Amino acid sequence: MEENNIVVKKEYNSLSETEIIRFGNEFLNEFIFNDEASSISINAFRIVAKIASDLRNSNFSDKQVQQLSLFDTTFKNEMNTCAKFTFKKSDIAVSRNYRNLENALEFLLNYKKGWYTVTNLKGEKLRSYGALLKDVTHSKGYISLTVPVYWLEKFTYLPSYNTYLYSLIDKTKNNKHIFFYLWLKTTMPNGTVVHYNNLNNRYSLKYKNASDLAKGFLKPIKIFLDTYADASFNYKRSGDSINITPYHNSKGNLLSEKTAKKVSLSQSTHYWSNRHKLNKVQKLKLKKGVSKPDLYLFERAYKSFVKDNRLNKIKSTSIVGDDFITKFQEFVIIEYSKTPFAEKMPNGYPIL
Asked: Domain segments of the chain: what residues?
């Protein structure tokens, strides 16, 4: 039975529009990357993205002990705690269609509804029943809604995450384009091979073979991402499977140049650090060594590193810590030797 007595522990103000938002991989895996996600409308996702945007100054990870402790004491010390958000209807209903807005809110009050458990730092488990939204009201051009602690933690606690282009949501009415984009960025930089039926199931499609799916589904998405997004992809069929290879897309990037470089750099170093289990000192070493102008060189070096490991039947993620830094440096030198700068400055490669 659902509990009606919610405890609002904190109210978050609506923040100004931002270029990028962060979604934790745990949140995406649970909320978006499943066979039910195709039922999430664009308006419903706009609400989700707005919540993530308004929480962008509240993100934390395991290393931010103070923020972790503060979140725990604020939201995990009693039952049925929530955070409250208030923002303009126009932030969601860009066409002023408030009936669609109400449908989106109603959907989020029911989607993935069930019992959820959170555990505080004392090891105590708190269970509550509900969905992403607990309570919703709207009037006079504003929406107020509450998000329970379970989902609030998924928004704010980001042990692993990617950054996404916020404005992309307004460039399409097709929710599948947005959800594919979210998934694509979690596969960067190496990409993946996927059976066409897996894509059929995830996106509620009915294509009879990989060829039809590539033409009817992937090609329009690629055109959309090439035009508007900061990331796109190439694809190649092989029987019933499709090889999807993502890449950073500077031509379609709607970010300012300064933000785009910062995001790309942050994404790459964050990905490599997590994938190869770098400690604090090693992460700092990597961040200092990887500069914005040379990022393309490091990305090429990493692809070569992964390719070489595959040829030698070595799992790339088994190379961790200082061993990864040393090995990565070797491939940076190899890739640098292929550039025109190597002739004039043989030892001018970036040093980790």
From this structure: 7-162, 172-248, 257-344
pTM for the structure as a whole? 0.73
Where does the pLDDT of residue 182 fall: very low under 50, low under 70, confident under 90, or very high at 90 and above? very high
Structure-block tokens of residue 217: 């589904």
Distances (CA, A) of 245 to 40, 86, 126, 158, 331: 26, 39, 42, 25, 21
Rounded distance, CA 305 to CA 331, Å? Answer: 6
Alpha-carbon distances, residue 30 vs 23, 151, 188 (angstroms): 12, 10, 19
Rounded Cα gap, residues 19 and 71, in angstroms:
26
Q: Is 269 helix (H, G, I), strand (E, B) or coil?
A: helix
Cβ-contact 213, 196 below 8 angstroms: yes
294-to-68, 148, 188, 227 alpha-carbon distances in Å: 34, 43, 18, 25
Q: What are the pLDDT digits (tens) for 41-95?
A: 999 999 999 999 999 999 988 778 888 899 999 999 888 999 999 999 988 887 7
Using CA atoms, how far apart are residues 172 and 224, in angstroms rounded to an integer? 9
* 15 vs 19: CA distance, rounded Å: 12
Fold of 172-248: Arc Repressor Mutant, subunit A (1.10.10)
Q: Which two tokens stand for residue 221?
A: 């998405």
- How big is the chain by its Cα radius of gyration, in Å? 22
Residue 185, phi then psi, degrees to nearest 5:
-70, -20
Angle between the 65-75 and 149-156 helix axes, to the nearest 10 degrees?
A: 170
User: Could you give the 3-state DSSP secondary structure of residue 241?
Assistant: strand
Sign, CA dihedral 193-197-203-208, equals: positive
Nearest to 58 by CA among 50, 67, 49: 67
The C-alpha atoms of residue 343 and residue 177 are separated, in whole angstroms, by 44
pLDDT digits (tens, 9 = 90+) for 23-40: 999 999 999 998 888 899
Give the distance, in angstroms, between the CA of residue 67 and the centroid of all CA atoms in the same chain: 21
Half-sphere exposure of 272 (CA within 13 A, CB side): 28
How many angstroms separate the Cα of 302 from the Cα of each of 250, 295, 296, 331? 19, 11, 10, 7
